[in-house]
């Protein structure tokens, strides 16, 4: 199974931390944010992670080269030459993901107790085209969502 992690943002809200390092490499609970995700994906049986990267791709690749070996997971990149919002990087990464199997898509700046195994089981049981993990909040407008 594969996963795509969207890591193309500039991390402007975390400046000055992100002036020298991409946001996914900023430490959260004593390790880079992206490692929390990759470790959870590996534990769920994901064998390949594709990074949709735009900002400082060489730093992402350099950092993850050694982690790839340690975690026993293949990590490849799909480079955006210009920011493509959310759907654009998914389309751009299609050649890496187009094997007819389901795959995960994650934002690099979200960290939680991912129920990946349950999501896989639900998708297999229902044959759903997609399974979305969401968290209910009182005021979604704080997250750029408008509910009318």
Automatic annotation (TrEMBL):
Domain named Nucleotidyl transferase: residues: 2-145
Taxonomic superkingdom: Eukaryota
Classification via InterPro entries: Mannose-1P_guanyltransferase, NTP_transferase_dom, Nucleotide-diphossugar_trans
Official protein name in the record: GDP-D-mannose pyrophosphorylase
């Amino acid at each position: 199974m594969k996963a795509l992690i969207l890591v193309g943002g500039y991390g402007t809200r975390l400046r000055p931390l992100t002036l020298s390092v991409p946001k996914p490499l900023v430490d959260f609970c004593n390790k880079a944010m992206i490692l929390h995700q990759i470790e959870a994906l590996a534990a769920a049986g994901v064998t390949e992670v594709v990074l949709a990267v735009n900002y400082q791709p060489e730093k992402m690749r350099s950092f993850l080269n050694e982690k790839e070996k340690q975690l026993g997971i293949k990590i490849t990149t799909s480079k955006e030459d210009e920011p493509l919002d959310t759907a654009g990087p998914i389309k751009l990464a299609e050649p890496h993901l187009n094997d007819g199997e389901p795959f995960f898509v994650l934002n690099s700046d979200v960290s939680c107790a991912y129920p990946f195994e349950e999501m896989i089981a639900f998708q297999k049981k229902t044959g759903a085209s997609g399974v979305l993990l969401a968290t209910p909040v009182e005021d979604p407008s704080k997250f750029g969502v408008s509910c009318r």
